[in-house]
Here is the input.
Amino acid sequence: MRVIGITGGVGAGKSAILKYLTAISGVRVVEADEVGHLLMEPGMECFEKIRAHFGERVLTPDGQLDRAAVAKIVFADKKELDWQNELMHPAIKNWIRREIEKERQQGACALFVVEAALLIEDHYEELCEEFWYIYTEPEIRRARLKESRGYSDEKIDAIFRKQCTDAEFRTHCAQLIDNNSTKEAVYEQVDILLGKLGIHTTHQESGTFR
Here is the structure.
């Protein structure tokens, strides 16, 4: 089984490429954000620690974690944000590590794909053989974020400043997927990279990409 990480700036189109990969037999895709949500569910390892730290104010009436309430607290207080990051990031990474080992033991997965916003910063090279960088021109990303999320230019600029630069992504990633043109062009690039890993798939012409 091969393990690769996928990264790129916000609005680069990572979700569409992950969706394409998910549909391929023998490929498992894990997104760090979704793992984080799972680990904050009642009974999971981070739930009680967050509840104990922030108190009942971050719970919904039915006992679930109110992620919006947590977000409001941590984004108003850097110390609280640091505390949450120190809890969640290692927990997410360890969960993914365990899942990789499970898949290796079961032997049915040919490719394990990890997507994480902090793939580079959190040193996912410890888990992944290589990183793939989804590259999209900043102005295309900006237009997508305005259309799909309703973000202002000010908010987009603030997000862009916090993320890795194009040069940093290119330095740490072994492969680049150009997502500036058509869905067919992206499919072809992904298929070529999969072929290099020994995974062969029929090029899909369905409207997976938006």
In short: The chain has nine helices and five strands.
